Amino acid sequence: MHSSISPHRLLTGCKISFEFGTWIFGELLSSKTRSQYDPVGGDTFEQHEVYECTRSDKPIKSQHTIKIKRQMNFWSNRDYHEPSDGINREVENLHRLKSCTSTPKLIGLRIDNQGPGDDLPGGYIAYIVMQKVPGKGLHNYDELTPRDQNRVRIAFIDALWEFRSNHFSHSDPRRENIIWDPETQKWFVWLKSLIECLVTYATVLLLT
Fold it and tell me: According to the lineage, what is the superkingdom (predicted)?
């Protein structure tokens, strides 16, 4: 099956249908390019875009996001045609942490081949629809009062313990992977930054 959504135009207002519903793209929340490596496939690049989205065929009150991961060039091993491990790992983590209160909930995944009008016809494109968690990023952490910074630290420790109870740890210290909700005093973490290993020293130092 082919999917054809051009990355060079804003998708806000566009509609896309999956077996898990029909969704309308809302505001673009982020856009970036990431390199990917596979021991068999070699190297490639992905364009990542995250949009707010709403379900149109069955209106629901909760808010959601749709993440698009689009292959931008073929793997350096041209005989390799699989999606990146990062896509599979993120979705697997969502499944395994479905009872975790500090991570978004997975709604559905769809992986297609890009169509003739896309950047890389025949390359993969993945759509991950998930719950939109409340809160915002911590880019202004240094501007918070000492009291609020301590609240963030306490919530951070609570989230770490929850991950460890599920045999996961937070492995990426970048603040862009973290959402802080001051109303509920909770952290929410993007699943790509969770792995099954010991808590890294860099993570512990994140907010010191």
Answer: Eukaryota
- How high is the pLDDT of residue 115? 92
Residues 3 and 115 sit within 8 Å (Cβ to Cβ): yes
Residues 25 and 13: their CA atoms lie apart, in Å, by 5
Q: Where in the chain are the domains?
A: 2-131, 141-204
Cβ atoms of 114 and 124 closer than 8 Å: yes
Among 100, 152, 158, 159, smallest CA distance to 131 is for 100
Measured between alpha carbons, how far is 51 from 10 in angstroms, rounded to an integer?
10
3-state secondary structure 128-187: EEEECCCCECCCCHHHCCHHHHHHHHHHHHHHHHHHHHCCCEECCCCHHHEEEECCCCEE
| Radius of gyration, alpha carbons of the chain | 18
pTM beyond 0.85: the answer is: no
**Structural domain 2-131, CATH architecture:** 2-Layer Sandwich (3.30)
Task: Give pLDDT, residue 174.
Answer: 66
Angle at 23 between CA 20 and CA 24, to 5 degrees: 175
Q: How far apart are CA 80 and CA 144, in angstroms?
A: 48
